[in-house]
Design brief:
Largest interface: A-B, 27 and 20 residues
Largest sheet of chain B: 5 strands, parallel
Structural class of chain B: alpha/beta
Number of helices of chain B: 7
Radius of gyration of chain A: 18 Å
Number of helices of chain A: 10
Order of helices and strands of chain A: EEEHEEHEHHHHEHEHEEHH
Structural class of chain A: alpha/beta
Helix content of chain A: 25-40%
Oligomer: heterodimer
Order of helices and strands of chain B: EEEHEEHEHHHEHEHE
Number of strands of chain B: 9
Strand content of chain B: 25-35%
Shape of chain A: globular
Number of strands of chain A: 10
Amino acid sequence: MTMQDNDPPLMRVSKLSHMYGDRIGCRDVSFDLYPGEVLAVVGESGSGKTTLLNCVSARLQSSAGTISYRMRDGRMQDLNALSEAERRFLMRTDWGFVHQNPADGLRMNVSAGANVGERLMAVGQRHYGRIRETADDWLGRVEIGHDRIDDRPGTFSGGMRQRLQIARNLVTGPRLVFMDEPTGGLDVSVQARLLDLLRGLVDDLGLSAIVVTHDLAVARLLSQRMMVMKDGQVIETGLTDRVLDDPQAPYTQLLVSSILQV
Amino acid sequence: MTKRLLLTGVSKSFTLHLRDGVTLPVVAGVSFGIDGGECVVLGGQSGAGKSSILKMVYGNYGVGAGQILISHDGGQVDMACAAARQVMQVRRRTLGYVSQFLRAIPRVAAIDVAAEPLVQAGVAVATARDRTADLFTRLNLPERLWSLPPATFSGGEQQRVNIARGFLPDLPVLLLDEPTASLDARNRQVVIDMIAEKKANGTALLGIFHDADVRDAVADRVIDVSRFACAAVAA
């Protein structure tokens, strides 16, 4: 883990709100995210967690509040003040976004190798041999066989597609990865493998991540800190094990007590 | 001299919002201190709040009132009100915890589960594995299990993985929640010896042990938690 004590925050979100017309998406959300830290955002469908994720990843313009991000040169940048070109550059280089449905994050009509290589080309790499080599290396890291590099993702299982999406996101060495229900829609055995893989990669690379999930077990395994959302607002926040083992808010108690034991 | 760990007027109750907000008082007025090289054991019957006290010290349970001061990096941190990030730092460098049950991670080998805190503290993976292997050997954990994920291990085998994980890093304060509960006599003795070594190295230990023989062997003092019991007043 590369987490340092006195690092300044990587991202600072203050009083963030987003309205869909009269309807509240999320309201008055504030948090700091530090380098190497994984923050889980939990809550049921419609609680505003995906809206929040889309706002802080600059995919959705927020209605109010500020989001600042520490750029690689160390200065804090107000994300709402970025030009479209700067925003796209950030998304291609310093950030990753793992969608619940891999088809939303992959190009389904090109090969697995090209899906990974494309991100490298987007950051200026041109040497075909090296791109292919790096892509091959990343496919190995996400446990996709070398013999599948020229296959299209359409021929892959759901779990393999999700692992390919992760490789595509991590190949450029991002510092921050956003994940929207990364294990949603996968069989539990496939989920366990993916979680273990994600956990290892986050640790090895010292990544920061914001993970939206409704699955508290996923949050327990991946995150150090947790925010619980309901009706667009954060109702409880703290260390992940504290929130899960001694939940304070009535809604958090309901969520925790609703987990099925096997 | 500043105590390594000092609890003053600590109380805990649970408010059950799903049960009409009924309040379950657990403990109140918990006050004691521990120096380095000392092993303090919490006594009292089941339900007296022993584990709750350990979990409050670790930052795993919220604290109703009072202070839990721990010496950390040359200063003191109040675990009762420390921010999440500060609690993480204290856990990484000062405060270890051996829980009663291992929370197994799917697919990760026992040796890597136990070596993880060392690796996170910056020890090279090969060195961390070697040290873990030595401790597994000492704890009589069969070598054929080391490379398997502990989910399918017996209670006693899982507990030894957990003990290794908690004892490997050299942290100044160590919390032990019944680490010997599922061990046979031979392995209990190994753990007793390991605790004695920690004490000799100046570690402050706070533990719960139901076995009288283990308790007698390791405790410098036993604190009867039932004296912190609060009168059961439901809200």
